[in-house]
Amino acid sequence: MFKRGRAEGWLRQPIDALPLWADFHGVRFNGIKVGSIPGLEDRGSTVIADRDLTGGKEDPLMVVPKDLIISRQNIEIIAKADHHLKEVLEAVGDFGRTTRGAVLIYLVLQATIACPDINGIGVLHPLTEYIKFLPDELLPTFWTEQERDLLTGTTLRPAVRAKLSSLLREFEAVRTATESIGWCAKHWWDEDDGQLTFEDWMRVDAIYRSRALEFPGVGDAMVPCVDMANHASGDTTAALYETDEKGNGLLLLRDGKNITKGGEVTITYGDDKGACENIFSYGFLEDTMTSAKTIFLDLDIPIEDLLRPAKMAVNTAAPGFRISEKDGHIDWESDFVWLLAINQEDGLDFKLKQTIDGQTEIEAFWKDQELDDTSKLRTFLEQDRLWDVYQLRAVVLLQSRIETQVQTLREVKMPERDPSIRDGPWQLAGRLRNLELEMLEKAGADLEDQKTTIFQSEVVQRYLGLFQDEAGADEEPVDFS
After folding, report:
1. How many domains does the chain have?
2. Which of 181, 178, 218 is nearest to 201 (CA)?
3. What is the pLDDT of residues 104-128, one digit of tens each?
4. pTM value?
């Protein structure tokens, strides 16, 4: 690792050396090994049955000592004995107190210790060698600009763009926080001899995103060797991961799962993750995936909305909406859309409040009820007599946004294959476009049905002046726009 101008990436250890590392550090394998499947070497290393395995009759397939688990708690313990690690974690402040921040800083330090050009930094740990077994992950943040252009019109394109911007901000923040530390200034940031690059920061981010699992009692963590297992969803998942009463990481064969020698032992990274998230975090899509599953689309408050500045100031919700597909049915959820669907005439109001330090804040109110969290807005609206009207407005807003996304996907076609574009990004981009387009078209049709149903509501009919009472007198129409 840390060779300026290098193309070869970090220092690597052959996967054949992993059993020796595992045995030396107390990782126990039972009827399994880590390696590539014959004929599928391009998929990299995975967990393979070393003999016939019978579900319900096997001891844990793998036991990983708790002190090898890369978790925030363990990193804090390690920092007590490693003043270099402690120094950096304290320097980066709140970021170092998050699990992701602590893990990324820890991985960077382990790579620093492993660098042959750097001596006397950090405390050697078994994980200093383990990171050399981890392959580079071809996540979209490592795609070329030409490859990322293939994603135009998909929800992954803005997600990757935002992620790269976020990573750059993090990298510069870490540099600013640590460049006054002598050894960091010398080994990481020196203009001539510094070794740490933005590409290295992208790499540790990719390692964490693609390998972190939520372990019971531990939270998000990387568990060496268990993180070598590939993903399979639903009934095809072969094994489960958990911790024992001592906090050790376990890999357990599922009851009823029988695997012949040479078969793959898979785990799940999360069955509910959509196509976009799978590519974003793991760089792959299952061959059996036939639906995008979940899509998040952004929403914006129209410029012509006179309350736009105030709404943006008080908003506490994610500015968008999520659509999900399960068993062929589309559902949607959003806290933000309700803020777009109402106005001052409905009962939304804003007031200025003076804080104790002399600053001015905007307070939101719904019919004299303080709205300190916009995620509560739906609850207020559900209790209002015009709830059906607000639902109709929300559905119309979502339908319009979906139509825009569908139109973009249809208009922006996949270009002809360029020799410089790798097969992985080409295949993934094409599949994602098709999956998202199909699901968005279904969502648009479902929302049209919802709109038709809500439109028949007596409340909506009266609001629009279309309801005729028994006396035959039409109510005065209301401008629905």
Report:
1. 2
2. 178
3. 999 999 999 988 888 889 998 999 8
4. 0.88
